[in-house]
Recover the amino acids of this structure.
């Protein structure tokens, strides 16, 4: 029973983090939230007896993807509203 | 009108998709007489490998793994082709700025530990969870740490490409050796040893170490390219 409660709690946490990542206008916070999703998913995979997949998720989902997104944010714009400023993106791409 | 057509199309697609998945019956015992028992039995009795997942990935379904490695290689090559610059100036990284002394010292301390963890995971791929892909990614993460902490830390693209090419070539050669010896691609032709030993499992640890080197080199090169992308 505690096992089931734990799993449901983790699933709920993932859901909350995903919704937060969508509604958040600051993209850096959104990326951190997606990292939290991956972290919780790692724990879930481990609880569901798939340690191989858990390791993959930890290495790629938590570390690599998050950092590549952060580098992208640093190279482009941080706030979602800034996408209206076309010149900003142009100068970032060039 | 446009939205109406989209909704109709999605509804039709959804209906057939749902019907197909309903007939599949997830969670039912439809794999009772499938291939799973053979894998579980042969992993222990023939290959003497503790980690069934590894034995499936590298031995029984080794050809799929070759395809996965090729996909990763193509993705890294395409990214490098898009972002490649001929001239690399010493001070032209906009992404990075000098890190503080604490971060630099901490990265220097952590770097060998991270590399050791990654190497441990892909060397022990046949004994404990994990393997070439996971270990290689962790090694690449260690290099990423150093690249972020130190302005002037560089990795040689020549060394990376040589490591990657040799790992790939030897993967295929081991597969072809099985082809010549046993009959199928990547069939085991080396002594399997006793179970739970480091030197056991025939070609499985060797192939997984090669995969680990290949993935580590590819991802490190990819990160390096992304970090040095902008003038």
């Amino acid at each position: 029973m505690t096992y089931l409660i734990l799993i449901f709690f983790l699933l709920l946490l993932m859901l909350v983090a995903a919704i937060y990542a969508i509604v958040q206008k600051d993209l850096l916070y959104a990326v951190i939230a997606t990292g939290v999703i991956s972290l919780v998913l790692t724990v879930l995979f481990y609880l569901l007896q798939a340690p191989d997949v858990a390791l993959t998720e930890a290495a790629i989902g938590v570390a690599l993807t998050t950092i590549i997104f952060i580098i992208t944010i640093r190279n482009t714009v941080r706030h979602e509203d800034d996408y209206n400023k076309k010149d900003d993106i142009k100068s970032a791409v060039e | 009108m446009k939205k109406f057509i989209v909704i109709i199309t999605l509804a039709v697609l959804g209906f057939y998709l749902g019907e197909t998945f309903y007939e599949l019956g997830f969670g039912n015992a439809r794999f009772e007489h499938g291939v799973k028992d053979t894998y579980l039995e042969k992993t222990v009795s023939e290959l003497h490998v503790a980690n069934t997942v590894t034995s499936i990935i590298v031995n029984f379904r080794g050809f799929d793994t070759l395809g996965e490695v090729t996909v990763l290689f193509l993705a890294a090559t395409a990214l490098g082709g898009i972002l490649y610059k001929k001239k690399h100036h010493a001070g032209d990284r906009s992404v990075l700025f000098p890190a503080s002394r604490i971060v630099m010292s901490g990265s220097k301390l952590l770097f060998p530990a991270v590399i050791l963890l990654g190497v441990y995971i892909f060397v022990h791929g046949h004994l404990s969870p994990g393997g070439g892909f996971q270990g290689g990614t962790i090694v690449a993460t260690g290099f990423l740490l150093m690249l972020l902490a130190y302005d002037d830390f560089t990795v040689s693209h020549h060394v990376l490409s040589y490591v990657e090419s040799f790992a790939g070539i030897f993967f295929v050669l081991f597969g072809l050796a099985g082809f010549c010896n046993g009959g199928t691609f990547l069939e085991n032709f080396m002594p399997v040893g006793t179970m739970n030993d480091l030197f056991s499992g025939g070609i499985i640890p060797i192939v997984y170490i090669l995969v680990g080197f290949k993935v580590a080199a590819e991802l490190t090169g990819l990160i390096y390219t992304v970090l040095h992308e902008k003038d």
Summary: Chain A has a mean pLDDT of 86. Helices of chain A lie at 2-23, 27-47, 51-75, 86-93. The CA atoms of residues 16 and 39 of chain A lie 13 Å apart. Residues 2-81 of chain A form one domain.
